[in-house]
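# nightly structure sweep
# worker-07 picked up a monomer target from the shared queue
# config: single-sequence mode, recycle default, output format = structure tokens
# input follows
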Amino acid sequence: MSSLPPSDLPTEHPTQKLAEAGFITSGAAEAEGTAASDTTVVAFKAATEQSQSKAGADNTKSKADEANGSAWAGRGPDLSLLSNTAGKAPPFPSEPLGDFWWDWCVASARNANAPVDYTVGTLLATAGALLGNVRWPDVEGVWEHPSVLWVGLVGNPSTAKSPGMRPVRKIITHIENARSNAVIDAGPQHRLKAFIAECAEREWRREIENTFVTRSNPTPADNVGPKNKTKGEVSTTIVDAEQPYDGMRAWPKEAQIPETPVQPVLHVVDATIEALITTSAGSPRGLLQFSDELSAWFGGFDRYRAKGVSADRPFWLKAFDGDPYSVIRKGGDLKNGVRAPIEIRHLSIGVIGSVQPDPLRRFLTNTDDGLAHRFLWMWPERSTTFKIPRKSETQLKADDEGALAAFMALDQLDAADPETGVRPRPLGEPKRISCSPAATDLLEAYGQAVMDRCENASAWYASTVNKAPGLALRLSLVLTYLRWSVEGDTAEPQEIDAANMQRAITLMDEYFLPQAERVRDCASLGDAENDARALIALIRKLGLDRVTGRMIHRIASGRLADTRIRKAAFDVLVDAGLLREAFTRKGKTAGRQKEWYLVHPLVLGNQATSEEDNPTSGPSTERAA
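# output follows
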């Protein structure tokens, strides 16, 4: 058991800080602080006297350390537990986006006090959705991908993930308003057509009834046809035994009720699979799912789990690949008398969302179907500045009008001719954009390099790297059209050139794969270590220089609310040298001691640790291998 001289005890009791933070009442803090301080001082005095009586010649240095008030001298704490990140995040390169989009992202992120990565990730996912089923990259007619991207924005709480996404979401709202205005007359026209169909239906029914009533030699009652089970009416197919349908006109096309128009949208927010099927059918250009918390999206995979298999995962795997999708829902509407399936030519849905490291780790450790390897992960360093933009600082404002015009250029690809209403190709059938020979050579060389890299890699990292060529292909098309969208009246690209392919490969290799390593390192941490990180973060937040398990129990939530888990987290921090046991008991009688833990000064003194201070969180060497 560790001991410290009374001079090392703080004058302010930790529970006073809990009261200041609003976790407990000030009266309870004062009562507990007075009693515990007296008890702790007495215990430390006794422990110090006992330690000094046993000290010999070999304890000279320890006595000197204690005399100087340096009880932690000689210990080397593991500072890696003071950080919730794994290694240093690579900066997002500016060149691939081009000058306009990079400047817009930087200005938008700065005004939101967010890392630029979050704004860039949302931009890439949105552009991918705008191109989703409109333009697909194609390699020699044998390899193609939809343009949708899945982007995961990782960060601790309050790191401006949602504010970083918001500038792009504002532009999406303008695009969807424009789409709504384009189909504003569809509703009244549908009502008119539906009413005409109802009138035709009633006229046809009267005609059939009159024909049946006026017929000679009707069929005996025991030969009457089947009843209409839905309405309980006698079927109008009661016919003469010789000529069953003689004189009866078939159901006319004019009576067929037209399909209800669906306003095409660009994005949905945390929609269910049933809603996504209907929305995707009405938005064949492609769709983007926004999730402010990807952890909720991950949790939805288990909503209809049966026999260990998630019902949602197969749907999302198809949505990533742009596969055809067809489903018949129970109780679905009849289509002109026939129960027809909902058919989607290409199910292409992009995903953009944010997630905290702990929920992400739980998802990664519970899945092995490759879903996580399809994501482009972005886990930047947190923003360290806060600035409110002034109205007078016009040079710092983002060019939102230019960004909207560029997005509208993407949204107008394959639009119907305003005069004839004719489209260049069926809605939802993408135009294939081929790679130039030089771009194909670059992609082939990158694919071979990826295969070579996987030889000695872990299974998790190998699965991620194997997806890199396909993701690079998607990125090459998105980058091609993003750069084209701000070039004014320049002709639409007819191929993916070598320059944009190289940009996509560089982006994958120097940014997204290192980010995937950070995510992999997050997944490799054990529960006890992550609980210890959460505990030390709570101690630092409250500024406690000593703490007990009871104090943490009062304010903790989640896993730390469990006594056994909390004790294991304390043990990890003690082993790491960040906490030190200082158990005490009032009086000299035997009994259970109060479990005080002293907090290492570096925990409170260094609120942010650099990579040099953190020897256990250096960059992974797996890529180099």
